[in-house]
Amino acid sequence: MISLIKQGWRPLLVIILLFVIWEICVQLFELPTWLLPAPTQILEVGVMEWSQYSHHVWATVQLIIVGFAIGSGIGILVAIALHIVPFLRQSTYPLIILSQNIPVIVLAPLLVVWFGFGMLPKIIVITLVCFFPIAISLLDGFRQTDRDLMHYMQMAGATRKQLFWKLEWPHALPSLFSGLKISATYSVMGAVISEWLGASRGIGYYMTLASSSYRTDRVFVAIMIIVALSLIFFILINWIENRVIKWRSTGEGGANEAS
Predict the structure, then answer these.
(1) CB within 8 A of 175, min separation 6: which ones?
(2) Inter-CA distances, 247 with 59, 130, 165, 252, Å
(3) Higher pLDDT, 77 or 12
(4) What's the pLDDT band for 5 if we cut at 50, 70, 90?
(5) CATH code, 132
(6) 169 lies in a domain?
(7) Mean pLDDT in the chain?
């Protein structure tokens, strides 16, 4: 986490510089608020109206957590099943790839028609955008298992179950967390898209109301919240990765010290 903070000061400085340029341009060209509000105006609205949209933030966070958890579980189970059963991988892998060619923005209205305006269609949308990166990344991690170590364990009499849990699964964990970090950001966008198309609360719903009433400042507040949620989820997954895969963190630390 400390290394992530140390590495993050440069992009943070660039972001601050962009906000300063944005503020200067708005003031210099006297742009109306409905067209492009200044960052200070967006910050003021975000702070002053927090009580009006805080419940929308909490509703979206709940939706993201549930959808991400289900999508991650399905992605991991699918990857394990396709890895263990080669025939299943050969039969269904192309279908999984094709499933990602259907735009979520097109599929979401159909889910609303089929399942109504409750949480179920929203969770399905998040699950669809989450499971694919996790499944593909984990499958790639299984394929990259050291063949020499596998051959050695097979000669030592290891069973298929022991090979999986003692060798393949630990070696696939970095790939799994790469997929989890991608899916964490996708889950936020999936939740917002699902709320656009049918919801009574949530950041997506709040953004739709703000846009229809030409409250561009509120739209930007919603955008900033979406970005913040994506960063928070990404950092959280990265922190969990550093706690779970301690052998990789140790190895990287040793390499850095040696250099």
Answers:
(1) 137, 138, 140, 141, 144
(2) 37, 27, 16, 9
(3) 77
(4) low
(5) 1.10.3720.10
(6) yes
(7) 84
Residue 72's domain spans which residues? Answer: 55-202
Whether 10 maps to a domain, the answer reads no
Amino acid identity for residue 232 in this structure: I
Q: Is 129 domain-assigned?
A: yes
First vs last C-alpha separation in the chain: 20
Which of these, 247, 78, 83, 241, lies nearest to 163 by C-alpha position?
83
| pLDDT tens, residue by residue, 221-259 | 999 999 999 999 998 998 899 888 875 544 444 434 333
Closest CA to 131 of 142, 123, 143: 123
187 contact partners, CB below 8 Å, separation of at least 6: 64, 67, 68, 71, 126, 129, 130, 233
Question: Which residue, 54, 195, 174, 222, is CA-closest to 126?
Answer: 195
Question: H or E stretch including 159?
Answer: none
Among 207, 9, 46, smallest CA distance to 38 is for 46
Please tell me the distance from the alpha carbon of residue 113 to that of residue 107, in angstroms, as a whole number: 10
Judged by DSSP in three states, 118 sits in: coil
**39 domain-assigned:** no
* Structure-token match 């140790």, residue found: 250
Q: Report how many domains make up the chain.
A: 1
37-57 exposure pattern, b = at least 16 Cβ within 10 A, e = fewer: bbbebbbebbeeeeeebeebb
Instruction: Please report which helix (H) or strand (E) contains residue 214, including its range.
Output: none
